[in-house]
Specification:
This protein has 425 residues and is α+β, with helices and mostly antiparallel strands. It has 5 domains: 57 residues; 84 residues, conserved putative lor/sdh protein from methanococcus maripaludis s2 fold, CATH 2.40.420; 86 residues, Beta Barrel (Elongation Factor Tu (Ef-tu), domain 3), CATH 2.40.30; 64 residues, Beta Barrel (OB fold (Dihydrolipoamide Acetyltransferase, E2P)); 104 residues. The chain has 5 helices and 21 strands. Strand 13 and strand 14 form a beta hairpin.
Length: 425
Amino acid sequence: MKKWIILAVVLTAGAVAVYLDHAGHIDLRATVKQGEKIVGEVVQSLSKDDAHAATKTADTPERVLAPAVSIATVKPEHFIEEIMVTGSLVAREEILIAPEVENLRVLTLLVEEGDSVEKGQVIATLERETLLAKRAQNDANLRRAEAAIAQARSRIRETEAVLVEAEAQLARAKPLQQRRILSDAIFDQRRAATSTARAQLATAKDGVLLAQAEKAQIEAQRREVVWNLSKTEIRAPTAGLITRRSARIGDQASGVKTAMFHLAKDGEIELEAAVIEPKLARVNRGQKVTVHVAGAGKVDGEVRLVSPEIDQATRLGRVRVFLGTNPQLRIGAFGRGTIIASRSEGLAVPLSAVLFKDGNAFVHKIVDGKVKSVTVELGLNSNTGVEITAGLKPGDIVVAKSGSFLRDGDAVRPILANQQVSEVR
């Protein structure tokens, strides 16, 4: 800077001298000498200023400003620990309604998706002609079996009479044969006739048993046909809400394929939600839940089931939140819930104020404008603040946004942070 000032003075003096020389008003040599004198005085003045500045710099040390940090005051707060869950709406208990009779054509469908039904209400009918024909055939077979039983019983009576006659003839023949009045051949014939009659009687009795067995089989077939006829009317097994209808008129009813109807028992809806593994242990049955459902707004619920299993791939646990029978809820809708895990009253600091080292939590406390690291114990936390159960007391000042650049004993300039710990919402 000094060189530039001297150069500017010299050039200015020279320019003035040249101009005046051409104008004939002043001697050039005298002007140059006068310029050199002026330059010398300027240089001498600048040298004195530099010397004065150097002396001042040596006498006054440079002031170094401390770094500014945002601070927060430790104070009691009301903590509510909330756990966020997300999932889809499902039926609390879903019942699949399928036909109990195979290969019958669907005649009518009496309900639509979204309809509420009562227990025992007819919701579809199947064709009955085939079963009616089987029942008529079964009736004929039953009458034939009854006739066979009557015939077998008549044969029993007939054979019993023959047996009585044969036994009488044999009894009369015995004394005659002993007195040699009746030949042995005739006696043997009468004895054989008696044995034959006994065998025929046994066969007749077996015929009755066989006819009765055939009748019992026919009656069982009839009961099956009658039961099948009763199942041509498909009824709701319980009261509830039809959530899906897969059947179509003219289809062949089959219980092996897709169910004809999906029924939400009593119309009760739940949120099947996923919870991250570290939070699952804090979820319990009966906890209150506020669920935001797309298209339905806010719905109050309650934790009904906490699954004992965690998915190994996603590391998520499953939770069922009971929501009731709100007609605005739709199966499959997305839901976002907030579970109130616990409540507490304690000292609060911002989440950004807590640091971790070697498994311990600590904060930077401000004491007389200097940093002091204090080990603390943590309680409940939220998205904005954390509860301090030990290590601090109300009114303490801590660094709101701590960092690894701060050390014990560092001087800082505290600045009140705008962010304050508030109740979790």
